[in-house]
Amino acid sequence: MAEIAGRPGQPALNDEKRQRLLELVRGRTAARPTDLAEDEVMVWPSLVVVEALSAVVFLILLLVVSVLVNAPLEEVQNPTVTPNPSKAPWYFLNLQELLLHMHPALAGVIVPTAALVLIAAIPFIDRSPLGVGILFTSAKGKMIVLFSTAFTIISEVGLILFDNFIGVTKSLQPIAPPFVYLQAIPIAVMVGFSAILALMVKVIFKPTRRELIIALFTGFVVTYFVLTIAGTSFRGPGMELFFPWNMPAPH
Q1: Where is the Cytochrome b/b6 C-terminal region profile domain (predicted)?
Q2: Which of 21, 119, 137, 188 could form a disulfide with 131 if both were Cys (CB 3.0 to 4.6 A apart)?
Q3: For residues 246, 170, 101 and 222, what is the CA-based torsion angle, rounded to 10 degrees?
């Protein structure tokens, strides 16, 4: 084959012709490239088996906990008496926490809808195949997640404490229309803090588009958990703030 390829006046062999010539050699096969890198494995069975075993172990642990830990029911429901505080199920307490700080339509409809639309738009905004399947994309991505988590926790806790003890509504209610302190200011705060987070990540980490999206998505997830924990463990009668160990009994 080398003689044919190097013969004067003969056209150069392309990949297809070279592959055909290799197939004619007895006892030898052409090397086939693989799509897997050295540190990659197939989803089946490597990943699926691990996930199935994890699901079985989790189910067994859940059954054991449900047998050992009692979950007593409360007293019989009385429709004429509303408990104080009257809380939504824990998975909606983040929205109930938002209701304390802004207009009900904004907290219950507009903000959740906007969040879901933005999350659904992520695959259309970031179409790069680089880093697919790698947790946090890169080492820099992990640092961005930690930074975004710390920034969001500090910001959320600070805003909750500020609105509880100082209060935009309390301060502006006598002098401003409800639209200002129930809609305009909450929207400005949410957009403003998101922009501050994005700007700080850009300046500090010089992120790619995906890493910037990771920062904002981390902020969203941490916000979800902070609001849920605040509504579950720190809101007592009248939806006022209490430490969990000083929480009055519902009445």
Answers
A1: 33-158
A2: 137
A3: -60
Q: 150: which residues sit within 8 A by CB, 6+ positions away?
A: none
What are 214's two structure tokens? 């990771």
Q: For residue 2, what pLDDT is reported?
A: 47
SS (H, E, C) 107-119: HHHHHHHHHHHHH
Closest to 226 (Cα-Cα) out of 134, 124, 158, 141:
158
Query: Other CB atoms closer than 10 Å to residue 144's CB: what's the count?
Result: 22
List b or e across 92-131, with b for residues whose CB sees 16 or more CB atoms inside 10 angstroms. ebbbbbbebbbbeebbbeebeeeeeeeeeeeeeebeeeee
Q: What is the mean pLDDT of residues 75-103?
A: 86
For 194-218, the three-class secondary structure string (H helix, E strand, C coil) is: HHHHHHHHHHHHCCCHHHHHHHHHH
For the chain, which residues make up each domain, given as ranges?
Answer: 1-30, 90-234
SS3 235: strand
Does the predicted model carry a pTM greater than 0.85?
Answer: no
The 10s digit of each residue's pLDDT in 192-230 is: 999 999 999 999 999 999 999 999 999 999 999 999 999
